[in-house]
Write a structure and sequence with these properties.
InterPro entries: PPIase_dom_sf (IPR046357), PPIase_PpiC (IPR000297), PpiD_chaperone (IPR052029), Trigger_fact/SurA_dom_sf (IPR027304). The chain is of the alpha+beta class. Strands 5, 13, 14, 17 and 18 form a five-stranded antiparallel beta sheet that branches. Strands 6, 9, 10, 11 and 12 form a five-stranded antiparallel beta sheet that branches. Helix 5 crosses helix 8 and helix 11 packs across helix 18. The radius of gyration is 35 Å and the shape is extended. The N terminus is likely disordered.
């Protein structure tokens, strides 16, 4: 293979960026064919099996991190666990690996192959392997070595990537756009429609909704988290102020000098770093303050260790020369006034058990020791206490459902022409989905241009904002077909990519439906 590569030193075609290829290598086709089956503890040592072919956990992990990394590049930030879960990255990863196994198996059946020369030619086009615009074998070896990838592994990964792409393209090439589809697209681009519509919002129907106590009880049971009161604690605490110790703490000249050297960037003047002699007094005060803070923390920690057994905050406070303060019950989001802004103290309070002494917690104000006096867990109040809030929420949900139901019922009436309706006025197809007098709804826009007969109603209502719309065709002004022949080629070219992707998706879906697939549930856990 490396001998073949040397033939392409003069290639100057640039198609792909090296980072994409490296990521592809890390996360794609190194499938483990029939290796392992158990992790020795009764669990599965593979991510999935596809018709007997095993996808290793290691391969899944590599592909998962690659996929997540690509999305982070797209979004320009680290993905939060919530966003990652919402995007379904783990499922996307395993589905892609499964599809790859199925496609590779079909490539073999279809007799599709990738020649070594093709792989060499493609690799030679990668800019990271080029020098002065041409492939350089030495650069190729050095780059792979720097990324801890052997030429053999890299070339095999590229070969499998190309085999996948060839097979996908073979399926896509079979897709065609019919004359009828071209004509339909032409008409959508040039015809104009006028829609009749009626709409309903939750506010329109809210007044007619009456809920029984049983319905409210059921709603409360089904939506407890919406009404649960937050957990509350009350604490006793003592605050140690390190500044009170500073005057009693002595620092040696050596300690001051060491502090100055470690924190030299703090002593900047207009001309740069100020010499020690000029800032000696300030450095001494700073070193004294730091030493006092350290000793205060150590004393507080010692007091906690001494009095923690019986949670004697009073004894700990007395040993530190402090006094004990108490708070009323408070929540994590609305702490007691005395602890406002002390997020670390509040967090520690909610981490402690009732009656437990904790700390020390160091903040800008000082060093806290905390004891939980009382704890009230999160709870759902009885319906009688929150009936108004429950009813408001339940009515809101019921009104939204009722508005949709009324719009569904109106579709049948629109089809008969027996309902007073508003009109949008004549408009042409807009990719943005902006429907006159209604608003933006790409789904409604697409549906509008499938309607042909007067009073023909859409198959379903559409939600725009908080309103549900039932629409039917009032009239359609058809454009002459004189320009169809001229535009046919352009339209067909525009429609073809979508048709090709649909053909590929359908083919892969059929492969999956016939395959025996076993996915390790652990790979999908959060």
């Amino acid at each position: 293979m490396l001998g073949v590569m040397r033939k392409y030193k003069q290639s100057i075609v640039i198609k792909v960026v090296f980072i994409v290829i490296v990521l592809s290598f890390i996360g794609t086709i190194f499938l483990v064919w029939g290796k392992g089956g158990s992790d020795g503890r009764g669990g599965k040592s593979y991510a999935a099996t596809v018709n007997g072919t095993k996808i290793s956990l290691d391969e899944f992990q590599k592909s998962y991190y690659r996929t997540r990394g690509l999305y982070e590049q797209i979004y320009g930030r680290t993905l939060t666990p919530e966003l990652e879960k919402q995007m379904g990255i783990k499922k996307l990863t395993i589905d892609t690996l499964i599809d790859n196994v199925l496609i590779l198996a079909q490539a073999d059946k279809m007799g599709i192959k990738v020649k070594k020369d093709e792989v060499a030619a493609e690799i030679a086009k990668i800019p990271a392997f080029q020098k002065n615009g041409a492939f350089d074998f030495g650069v190729y070896q050095q780059t792979l070595k720097a990324n801890r990838i052997t030429p053999k592994d890299f070339e095999e990964s590229q070969e499998q990537e190309m085999l996948l792409q060839k097979t996908r393209n073979k399926i896509k090439e079979a897709a065609t756009v019919t004359d009828a589809e071209v004509k339909e697209a032409y008409k959508k681009q040039n015809d104009k429609v006028n829609l009749a519509y009626v709409s309903f919002s939750p506010a329109d129907v809210k007044g007619s909704i009456k809920l029984t106590d049983q319905e409210l009880t059921t709603y409360l049971q089904d939506h407890q988290n919406e009404f649960k009161t937050p957990e509350q604690v009350s604490v006793a605490y003592t605050l140690v102020n390190p500044a009170q110790l500073a005057a009693k703490v002595n620092v040696t000249p050596e300690e001051v000098q060491t502090y100055y050297q470690k924190n030299i960037d703090r002593y900047q003047g207009k001309g740069g770093i100020l010499p020690f002699a000029e800032v000696k007094d300030k450095a001494t005060a700073d070193a004294q303050k730091q030493k006092a803070a350290k000793e205060a923390y150590e004393q507080a920690a010692a007091a906690v260790n001494k009095f923690k057994g019986n949670a004697d905050l009073d004894g700990a406070a007395a040993s530190l020369g402090g006094k004990v303060e108490k708070t009323p019950l408070f929540t994590a989001k609305a702490p007691a006034a005395a602890l406002a802004g002390e997020n670390e103290v509040v967090a520690r309070a909610f981490a402690l058990k009732q009656g437990e002494l904790g700390g020390p917690v160091e903040t800008a104000k000082g060093i806290y020791l905390v004891k939980v006096l009382d704890r009230k867990p999160a709870a759902v109040p009885p319906l009688a206490q929150i009936k108004g809030a429950v009813e408001a929420k339940a009515v809101e949900v019921k009104a939204a459902d009722l508005a949709k139901k009324k719009a569904e019922e109106a579709l049948a009436q629109l089809a008969k022409g027996g309902v007073a309706a508003k009109e949008t006025g004549s408009f042409g197809f807009a990719p943005t989905g902006q429907v006159p007098t209604i608003g933006a709804s790409p789904e409604m826009m697409e549906a509008a241009f499938t309607l042909n007969a007067p009073n023909q109603a859409a198959k379903q209502p559409f939600k725009v904002g908080d309103r549900w719309y039932a629409v039917a065709l009032k009239s359609r002004t058809e454009a002459p077909l004189t320009g169809l022949a001229k535009d046919s080629g352009t339209i067909k070219a525009a429609l073809l990519p979508k048709k090709q992707q649909e053909a590929l998706d359908k083919w892969v879906k059929e492969l999956r439906s016939k395959a025996k697939i076993d996915i390790n549930p652990l790979v999908l856990q959060d």
